[in-house]
Amino acid sequence: MLRPGMLHFNTMKNILLSVFVLLFSAVVSAASFQLHDVSILFPLPDKGELDLLWPPHLGGDKGQLLPASALAQLPALVEPLPPDQVLSSLRVVSLRIDPCFSSPCQRQVRLVWQPVRANGSRVVTLDAAVHTFYVLEEPEWGDFLRSYERIRMGGSPRPLGVHPRLESESLRGPFMKELTQLIRNFIGEKNLSRVTFMSLSGSANIWNFAGFDRVAEKFVPMSIPRLEGQGQSFINSAMPRLYFEAAQIVPEPKGTDVVERILRDSRHLGEADESAVVQDVQSLLKMENPLSHNAGTLDCVSCHVAQSARSYGEGRFPWRMHDFHHSANRYMNPNHDLRNLSSVKEITGNMRSFGYFVNQPSVSQRTINESAEVADQLSKTKGSMK
User: Fold this and answer.
1) Is the pLDDT of residue 37 over 80?
2) In 3D, which of 255, 250, 257, 254 has the Cα closest to residue 236?
3) Distances from the Cα of 308 to the Cα of 60, 152, 195, 302, angstroms
4) Which residues face 97 on adjacent strands?
5) Which one, of 201, 219, 61, lies nearest residue 133 by Cα?
6) What is the pLDDT of residues 174-223, one digit of tens each?
7) Helix (H, G, I), strand (E, B) or coil at 191
């Protein structure tokens, strides 16, 4: 039988132990890389302050971020708007850090650009994007990480969206100033390795994807995985863009993990289509899983349409939701909050993986999952940054 003093002692011991565990967990969370540390989405600026987002001519030790030689490779990004007006409105809307892009590993910083302009009292983005890739070799990669370690936010896990410090401090705050200087010190034309783009054509219902690799200071068309070609388009005739109608991927990707039934005409899916849609959803879950696919194994359109197609497929057969959520193909990571809170993730005309759809933040599940993997990799190597 416990005496009162012993009971009090044990109670206090348990309380102190609980406090210690909580404090230790907080310290570990603060030290670990979070989703927002490796994938930074900038807030849109106010009207008249568009240059608070980095323009193409921003430069530093490595030259301009998006030099004229790279801009010259781009087609008309938004038909029928004048190309010069669209290119001059390009601004960086997001940044990603990756210690192992594709295979073999490349240590990269990547920037996502969109045309940003004032529309009345609002600031909006146009339906086009440019993606620039910068390779950092050792010892420069280590120098970059050590410099970034001094300014990154850390903190506790939270869903990926607009960067919390940028949201609270604005684009005029200290974090943006420190981040701008970091970028000017480490990336630019000298280590620019690839430029990819998505343009809009037709009746605003054709999205075109292609890119260029920079080899010996010259740009050459890049090959797209799973294709015998160097360009790919997605066509969706649905209006409004809340479903798929006569949707096509041109050319279609080869191999396994492809989407077939959902894209054909999603409004008329019936019980007879259930098994085909379930198979599509399983393939889409694999596309979104960075442990199953990487940039070297997925074609452009499949990657960009996966979010809305999976959302539609899951919603069409809700009685299969348990199977979808517990699928071995779904990416899981207990270290991070993988919820997708984007309000535009189900729009079938939204090709944004990490940027803006008009003026709403757009984050794909693939981007969230990749960010979790990158954050864990950097947390494991954090000790070697000192």
Assistant:
1) yes
2) 250
3) 38, 31, 25, 11
4) 109
5) 219
6) 999 999 999 999 999 999 999 999 999 999 999 999 999 999 999 999 99
7) helix
- Paired with 361 in beta bridges are 356
Q: Which of 96, 105, 115, 111 is nearest to 40 (CA)?
A: 96
pLDDT at 228 over 90: no
Residue 156: CB partners within 8 Å, gap ≥ 6? 26, 29, 30, 34
User: CA-to-CA distance for 332 and 46, rounded, in angstroms?
Assistant: 37
| Tens of pLDDT, residues 260-311 | 899 988 999 999 999 999 999 999 999 999 999 999 999 999 999 999 999 9
Global pTM reads 0.91
Domain ranges of the chain: 33-222+359-386, 225-331
Looking at residue 242, its amino acid is L
Residue 176 dihedral angles phi and psi, to the nearest 5°: -65, -40
Q: Which of 54, 65, 58 is nearest to 190 (CA)?
A: 65
> Please, is 53 exposed, middle or buried when counting C-beta atoms within 10 Å of its C-beta (0-12, 13-18, 19+)?
buried
Burial-class residue 222 by CB neighbours within 10 Å (0-12, 13-18, 19+).
middle
User: Taking residues 56-72, what's their average pLDDT?
Assistant: 96
Question: Under a CB-based contact definition with an 8 Å cutoff, are residues 348 and 329 in contact?
Answer: no
Helix (H) or strand (E) holding 231: strand 231-235
Q: Residue 124: which of 116, 132, 134 has the closest Cα? A: 116
pLDDT of residue 15: 47
Q: Take residue 161 and report the two structure tokens written for it.
A: 């969206």
- Determine contact, residues 287/353, Cβ cutoff 8 Å: no
**CA gap 86, 71 in Å, rounded:** 11
SS3 label, residue 60: strand
The distance from CA 103 to its chain's CA centroid, rounded to whole angstroms, is 19
Taking residue 225's Cβ as centre, other Cβ atoms within 10 Å add up to 19
**DSSP letters along 109-143, please?**
EEEEEEEEEEETTEEEE-S-EEEEEEE--TTHHHH
- Other beta carbons within 10 Å of 235: 18
